[in-house]
Design brief:
By secondary structure, the chain is an alpha+beta fold. Helices cover 53% and strands 21% of the residues. The chain has a three-stranded antiparallel β-sheet with strand order 3-2-5, with no helix packed on it. A hairpin with a 7-residue loop joins strand 6 and strand 7. Helix 2 crosses helix 3.
C-alpha cells in the first residue's frame, strides 16, 4: 500500500488541529478560553491567540460601551410627592472572567437584568433622600452622579464598569396628574383674580384722578370765562359810558330803538302802556301826539 495513503489523512488532521488551535481576537471584543467550562485563559489584546484544539472553547464578549434602558419606576421623594422616572446607564464589561463567573452562560442578557435591578435600587435610594423640586430641577447632575457611584460598587461584582447614568423623563404618576393639573388651574385662577382685582383698583384710581382733573379744568375754565366775560362787560359798559358822554341825546335815541325792537317782536306782540309814557317819546310827533302807524 502506498505510504501517501496514510500520510495525507495525517496531514489533513494535523492541519485541522492547527487551524482549530488558532483564533482571532477582534479589537472590539474580549475573549475567554474555556476548558470543560472552566476559564483557563483571558484574551484582551487584539490579534492572534491560541488554544487547545477540540477540548478548548472560545467565548467572546463585546468590549465596547453598552447602553441599558431602565424602564419607568416610581420613586417617593422626601415630600411624599410620588414621581415616575426613566433612566439609562452606559457600561462596559471590565473584567470578563468575573463577568463569566457572575452570569454564567446567560451572558449580557443576564447581566443587564441584574444591572437593571441595581439601577432601580440605587435610583430609589438616592431620589428618596431629596425633595421632588430637586429631582424636577434642571440642575440634577449631582443626583445622577450619586446614583452612578452607588451602582459602580455593586456592578463591580458582576465584572461591569458603570460609566454614566442619566435621568431622562421625570413625571407625576397618571393618577396624580389630574389632581395636580386641577391644583395648578386653581392657583392660576387665583392669581388671575388677584391681577384683575389689582387692575380694577388701579383703574378706579386712574378714573378718580381723571374725574378730579376734569373738575379742576372745568372749574378753572369757567372761572377764566367769568373773568373774561366780566372784563368784556366792563369794557362794553365803558364804551357805552363814553358814547353816552359824547352825545347823550343820540345814546337815548339808540337805546329807545333797541327797546322798541326787543319789545315789539312777533306778530302777536302787545304792550299796554299809558299814552304819555316816556317809552313813546321817540314815537310822538313834534306837537306831542303819538304818530300813527302807517
Amino acid at each position: 500500500m502506498n505510504k501517501s495513503t496514510f500520510i495525507l489523512p495525517v496531514i489533513v488532521v494535523a492541519l485541522i488541529a492547527a487551524l482549530s488551535a488558532v483564533f482571532i481576537v477582534d479589537e472590539r471584543e474580549k475573549a475567554l478560553v474555556l476548558r470543560f467550562g472552566r476559564v483557563v485563559d483571558v484574551k484582551e489584546d487584539p490579534g492572534l491567540a491560541f488554544k487547545m484544539p477540540i477540548i478548548d472553547d472560545v467565548v467572546r464578549y463585546d468590549d465596547r460601551i453598552l447602553s441599558l434602558e431602565v424602564g419607568p419606576l416610581e420613586v417617593t421623594p422626601l415630600d411624599d410627592r410620588r414621581l415616575v422616572v426613566d433612566a439609562f446607564s452606559r457600561y462596559r464589561i471590565a473584567d470578563v472572567q468575573r463577568f463569566r463567573e457572575a452570569v454564567g452562560v446567560g451572558g449580557v442578557s443576564a447581566a443587564e437584568t441584574r444591572l437593571d435591578n441595581i439601577m432601580r435600587d440605587q435610583t430609589r435610594e438616592v431620589l428618596g433622600t431629596v425633595s421632588s423640586n430637586d429631582i424636577l430641577s434642571s440642575d440634577r447632575a449631582a443626583l445622577m452622579l450619586r446614583i452612578r457611584n452607588g451602582a459602580i460598587a455593586e456592578a463591580r461584582s458582576l465584572g461591569l464598569e458603570v460609566i454614566d447614568v442619566r435621568l431622562k423623563r421625570t413625571d407625576l404618576p397618571q393618577a396624580n396628574l389630574e389632581a395636580t393639573f386641577a391644583r395648578m388651574r386653581a392657583e392660576r385662577e387665583r392669581e388671575a383674580a388677584d391681577e384683575i382685582a389689582r387692575g380694577e383698583e388701579a383703574a378706579q384710581r386712574v378714573r378718580a384722578q381723571a374725574d378730579r382733573t376734569e373738575v379742576e379744568l372745568v372749574s378753572d375754565a369757567e372761572r377764566e370765562a367769568e373773568v373774561i366775560r366780566g372784563e368784556a362787560d366792563a369794557e362794553r359798559n365803558g364804551i357805552f359810558a363814553r358814547a353816552y358822554g359824547a352825545d347823550p341825546e343820540f345814546f337815548d335815541f339808540y337805546r329807545s330803538l333797541n327797546a322798541y325792537a326787543k319789545s315789539l317782536q312777533g306778530g302777536n306782540s302787545s304792550l299796554v302802556l299809558s299814552p304819555d309814557s316816556e317809552f313813546f317819546n321817540y314815537l310822538k310827533s313834534s306837537d306831542g301826539a303819538a304818530r300813527s302807524s302807517q
